[in-house]
Every structure is written in structure tokens, then in C-alpha cells.
Amino acid sequence: MAMQSGFIKRIRDIMRMDAGINGDAQRIEQMVWMLFLKVYDAKEDDWELNEDNYESIIPEDLRWRNWAKADSNGHAMTGDKLLNFVNNTLFPVLKGNDVKEGDTIVYEGIKVTPDTTIKKAIVKSTFEDANNYMKDGVYLRQVIDVIDEIEFDDVKESHAFGFVYEEILRELQSAGSSGEFYTPRAVTEFMALMIKPKLGEKMADFACGTGGFITSWLGQLSKQVTDTSAQKQLDDSIYGIEKKPFPYLLCVTNMLLHDIEVPNIYHTNSLKHNLLDYTDDDKFDVILMNPPYGGHEDKSIQGFFPDDLASSETADLFMSVILYRLKKNGRAAVVVPDGFLFGLDNAKVNIKKKLIGEFNLHTVVRLPGSVFSPYTSITTNLLFFDNTKPTTETWFYRVDIPSDRKHFSKTKPMELKHFEDCITWWNNREIIPDGEYFKAQKYTADYLLNEQGCNIDLCGYPHEEEEILDPLDTIREYQERRTALNAEIDKVLAELEALLPGGVSE
Length: 506
Fold this sequence. Notes:
alpha/beta, Ferritin, Rossmann fold, 2 domains, 18 helices
């Protein structure tokens, strides 16, 4: 723990003195691109030992070992010289741009072709949108020196740094909008545990952020690794897509820290692909993810989806992608906001009809609203389903706030132990009454589709939690409620109008 707080505090203290760093999100981004180069350099040491004729995609002078480290006399680039090197040589080359002096090319930008291996290609994709925010070369040198102290060839120290990196990711929760990249570890661990990974399976996360679900998957699967063959199956078991550059950088670095030498993580947009063009080769045994919610997509994105599923809401579109990319007999665990459960607009209804009518939605776990605090207080849910058969019945279970607190927070987050009652119930399911409500109950598919009209907001919280919501969260929550209510009102009005002879004239 001392390494955790010491490392982060030292870097924070240095960066606070640099005029170019504005806020925690920039500080973390600045830190991570340097960490990536440090970790990548350590991995290249291994590859050089284990592969014949290994050649780095990074020009020799630009490899971490040759510019970031002090020479044998203790001298290292610093000040304006270092700043000029980083801004005008290192970054342009790693982004794929040539560096010239007059008409002479001094350094060629790194090139990626279809034949470039993933472990080399990630360098360019990682730096395409990365930024150096620091404006003082002396402070930049000091940060580099702190990072260079870490010895990744020391197994104990490397393992300890894994906890440091986890702390960095947790800090994203309070780093403004960057918090959207982090799903609480307790949630990812619970979902991976319940999905029961098996060696030989391939899992996917189409909005993988910093890689939380992937690392939880790897953590569960690693318990089955007993030899090099099994290790190879584990290494090949993951697939991730991340649209935004910063979380992509965080995720790739995370994978390297977890000894995934060939991270199948891609910097692209999962929604920009015609849904009907997916083949069996594009499908996965397991999908674990927390689709982005609260966002809206334009018509160009909606055009990739069938008309009945073409929603403007990001979470809805991702749900459709999941349904189309889950293998026959595959399993999925997905985080969705309350709005997905009670929403009655056309796209949501059609998605839920497809989910229940073609897939086996066997479990819905309701989570307290404060699980994602302080990023959001919007209540979320976990959907567990498989592609084995249409749904016959669905169990709902509500996870309650522990009796010793009113809500979860940054200092007192949700932990895996808070799922213990749910885990016990999962393996021995029973109806749990709660006054006039239910903490756990099962419902038939017919009830969900017909009697409920696809409003599957069941076994929810009978009393609202006592907490003050962030204004933006409050706006989002009321917008979701208004959309759902408008859809419900429109539906009832349409049904009433249909009963009138000749309909209703304006």
C-alpha cells in the first residue's frame, strides 16, 4: 500500500507545479502514456530474449531505454531539450508522422500495415490521440524519473504495481467525465464470477474502457491454468473494442501489466458496422460489458441497424450489437440503466421482445443507485442471459444497501462481499417477499411480454435512497423518466383511439 500512495502522490505533487496540467484527468493521461512506454519497453526486453530477430516498431533512439533513462554518467535529457524532443520528435513519430530537417527525413513515422502484429500496431493506435500536456521540461524529467524507478522484471514489484494501476483507474471516478471509463471492481468481479469462464472460450467487451471486465475475466479464468497450453488459451481468450483514445491507452497498458503480450484490443467504434453483416466468425462465447448509456447517436449510426432496432440511445444500440454477436449457446452479462427496464419506446420494446423471445433471459439483478458513485447515481441493473432457447421464466433479485450505511461512496465503495447474499441465492433460488413487494421473484416470459407490455421494472426498491444527486445525474434521470412516461402515455392513447369509431380527428 505504501507504494500505491507514494507513487501517485509523488507524481501528483510534481505535476501540480506544471502550468500545462489542468485537472486530474489530464494528470492521469499524462502519467499513463509514460507508463505505457515504460511497460512496453520491459515487454520488448522479453520479446528480444524469446524471439529470433525481434525488431521494435519504435526507432532505436526513441525507445524508452535510450532517451528516458540516464546514461552511465547519470546524465539525462531535461529542460527545453527534453520538451522539444517529446513534442517534436517522439510524439510525431509514434503517431505515424515523419520528422524532417528541411527536406531530409530524420525519423520516419512508424508504419502499420495489415501484416503488422497486434503487439507492434498498438503503439501507433495508442499514441494517435495521446497528448503531452506538460510545459516544463524539468518537471517532465522528474516525473519520468519517478516512473523509471519501477522494475517490471522484478515479479514482486511488478505485481505491486498492478495495485497502483488499479488505484489510478479508481481515481478516474472523480476525474470529471473520465469517470465513465471505470466500472467498479466489485461489479466486474461478480459478473465474471457468475458467468463461469471456461478455458477455450473467447469473451468480448465492445466498449471495454480501461479493461475492467477483461481483467476480471482473466482473474477467474487464470484459476484453471495449469500448463503453458492453458496459458496460451487464456492469452487468446479476450477481445475488446474502445472508441475513445484515453481509455484505450489505459486498457492496452492494463493488458500489458497483466502479461497479455498480444492484447486483442482495438481502437474503433463498435456501432459502425452493419448489424446484419455479422457472421458466426464475428460472434463470441461470452460477452461481458457495461455499454455506455446516457449518450445519443445520430442518423448515420442508426443506419447500421434494422429499422425496428434503430434507437438514438447508445445503450440500446449496444444491446442490439450484443444480441447479434453472441454465439449459439453463448452467455452474456450486461449492465443496463433502469431506463432500459421500464422504457417503452419502439426500439426498447423491440429489443426486449428479441431478448426475451429469442434468448434465455434467466436473471436480472437490481443494484442500488449509489453503486457507481460519485460518477453517477442513476440506478443500474445486471442482465444475465444465454443464447440457448427463448425465455420461459426470469428471476429478479434486488441487492440492498448494507444495513450499516445509507449509500455507497468513493471512500466506502461497493465490495464483492456485498454480493454474498445474492451469490448464495443464485445457487438456491427462492422467492423472497418484502412486505407488499418482492426482493426476489420469478416471472414468466408471457407475463413480461404481454401483461407487463415489456416494462420489466420489477423487484425494484420500495423506498427511494436518501442521497443528493449531482445536477447532471438528476437531469439524466428525469429525461429518462420523461421519455419512458411519454412512450407509455402515447401507447395508452393509441389503444384508446383505436376503440373510438373512426378514430380521433384533430
